[in-house]
């Protein structure tokens, strides 16, 4: 309790914390050693790299997931023709950082972010259910397939979509 009182006073709290309460202090290092190691505040890129091990999205950092009509960070997969066969792969998506465990992947169409596991044609038309199902999911990336059990037609030979990868523990 003595330490908690001294900490509370140090942080300008005149009322002592009640028994059993906590004071949360961020970016503190306690060293029991005469050779004190200087604490280094991580850069934005260092912190981001650590966070990407648990969560990543295709949207720009300042855009919340499941936002409609956002072109920044969009995945574009060029197809060999305008016909998309059942179980056809659109290609692989690679993560910026290796995930801590296999992530849960959500594929989001470009123009209707309320839906998932669906892709859009590159002119923005949302294709049918299960037209963008993640497959071959690993800690470094995933593949997207048409598992709709229908052959689809696309006017411009490409599909577009956003995605989220959640590997939180």
Note down, in words, how this protein is organized:
With 169 residues, the chain is α+β, with helices and mostly antiparallel strands. The protein has a domain at 56-166: Sandwich (Immunoglobulin-like). Helices cover 11% and strands 25% of the residues. The protein is built from 2 helices and 10 strands. The protein has helices spanning 2-10, 44-52, and strands spanning 55-57, 75-78, 83-84, 89-94, 104-109, 120-121, 133-135, 141-145, 152-153, 158-166. The strands form 3 sheets. Strands 1, 2, 5, 6 and 10 form a 5-stranded antiparallel β-sheet that branches. A hairpin with a 5-residue loop joins strand 7 and strand 8 (141-145). The model is unreliable at 1-5 (pLDDT under 50).
Mean pLDDT: 85
Instruction: Write down the CATH topology of the domain at 56-166.
Output: Immunoglobulin-like
The CATH architecture category of the domain at 56-166 equals Sandwich
Largest sheet: 5 strands, antiparallel
- Spell out the helices and strands N to C: HHEEEEEEEEEE
For the CA atoms, what is the radius of gyration?
Answer: 24 Å
Shape: elongated
Highlighted features:
169 residues; elongated; 5-stranded antiparallel sheet; 3-stranded antiparallel sheet; 11% helix; Immunoglobulin-like; disordered N terminus; 2 helices; alpha+beta
What secondary-structure arrangement, pairings included, does this model have?
Layout: H1 2-10, H2 44-52, E1 55-57, E2 75-78, E3 83-84, E4 89-94, E5 104-109, E6 120-121, E7 133-135, E8 141-145, E9 152-153, E10 158-166
Antiparallel strand pairs: 1-10, 2-10, 3-9, 4-8, 5-10, 6-10, 7-8
């Amino acid at each position: 309790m003595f330490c908690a009182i001294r900490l509370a006073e140090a942080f300008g709290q005149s009322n002592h914390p009640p028994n059993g309460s906590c004071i949360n202090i961020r970016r503190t290092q306690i060293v029991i050693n005469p050779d004190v190691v200087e604490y280094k505040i991580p850069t934005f890129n260092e912190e981001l790299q650590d966070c990407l091990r648990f969560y990543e999205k295709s949207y720009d950092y300042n855009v919340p997931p499941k936002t409609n009509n956002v072109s920044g960070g969009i995945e574009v997969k060029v197809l060999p023709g305008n016909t998309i066969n059942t179980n056809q792969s659109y290609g692989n998506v690679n993560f910026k950082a290796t995930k801590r465990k296999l992530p849960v992947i959500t594929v989001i169409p470009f123009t209707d972010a309320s839906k998932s596991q669906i892709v859009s044609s590159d002119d923005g038309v949302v294709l049918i259910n299960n037209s963008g199902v993640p497959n071959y999911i690993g800690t470094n990336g995933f593949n997207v397939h048409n598992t709709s059990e229908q052959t689809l037609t696309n006017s411009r030979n490409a599909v577009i979509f956003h995605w989220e990868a959640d590997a939180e523990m």
